[in-house]
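Worked problem 6 (solution included).
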Amino acid sequence: MIRILTLALAFGAGLAGLAHAEIEIEEVTSPGGIDAWLVEDHTIPFTALELRFEGGTGLDDSDRLGAVNLMTGLLEEGAAEMDARAFQAAREDLAASFSFDVGTDTLSVSARMLTENRDAAVDLLRAALVEPRFDPVAIERVRGQVQSILAQDAQDPRRLASRAFYEAAFGDHPYGRPDSGTPESVAALTRDDLLAAHKAALTRDRVHVGAVGDITPEELGALIDELLGELPESGPELPGHIEFGLSGGIEVIDYPTPQSTALFGQPGLERDDPAFFTAYVLNHILGGGGFESRLMTEVREKRGLTYGVSTDLVPLENTEFWIGSLASANDRMAQAIEVVRDQWARIASQGVTQQELDAAKTYLTGEYPLRFDGNGPIADILVGMQVTGLPKSYVTERNAFIEAVTLDEVNRVAAELVDPGALHFVVVGRPEGLETEAGPEITLPEVVLPAR
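Solution. The predicted structure is:
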């Protein structure tokens, strides 16, 4: 175990410097026709592999919510002739690491393996992806874990605000549905539902592959076909585009807590919009820059209304919006919202200063190389670029895009994109002095915590 940890740390340290030089990304096509990106490095005998399948929980049928999430949680709970315990023992014997995760747009698989054990590790991972057992005892165990998480989420103001915000913004579209399903839908899922979800979510035509480490293009091509060649060629149709469906207003969801939580948002920009990088820099100045952002300065530092407030541009596969969050005491939430709205209006009408722009550029270009701090993070970046449709050259060109943003451009985008009248707040708590405004009616499920 000590040797494995030493290898991982050494590899991370070795690749951290690659971000400052040019990372050579090779395009690899397997004999079976599956494309991948590879950063080849033979410094130590260790490889990181990232798989990203498009679709995610967005493939759930409306009457089978939570199926893809539950199925994903079962991928390491037994495969082929191995039950859950045998599978975990085999993985540990190989000193391999596998993880599985799923969101609305994608299902992710991460693997880390030593070169000496790579073939056996790939065989084991192939079994998890192609031959999951979905044993009844494992289904009930993981179902119980999901149900427990749902029950906890139902008592979490931030989770409630998020659920209400997305439901109101996107309605019956998959973005408006809970990724993990509801207590009722998860309880009703059958083994056949999980088999159907597996067949729909893991397909060869929607997979993106990133690999970093001690592996050649030829070896990677063979590995990919061994790992994925038996999966279905294609799956069901993916969800379509939907506009952000909220207009300006405030919606309050009553919840007994001394501190209210708010999510707020307005329409945003597609990732390939020519103004996206300019808006990205603008967001950093407004609310994405931590303690240096305007909102943090005005809401926390000057007035002490919150411990934190932040914003982010969110360009998803099928929609785009600008979102923010904050929490404040019930008797101070109204003032916090007033300050957020004021800053939204100020940046739209007055723009930013050259000093703010220069500081944002310095931070954003300086922190970018720090993301390349190991084989795993780099593999994750490679596959994320593929999903987003970015070229290989983005790795070396990204900072130039940031540097190219001018003061005139950022202020033009601020005037055109930032819309205080479109800013919608969903507040969970019992805020004082906050009058609700026009907004959709939101109904959240009642969930009782299980007996302990």
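Discussion: Residues 105 and 273 are 20 Å apart (CA to CA).
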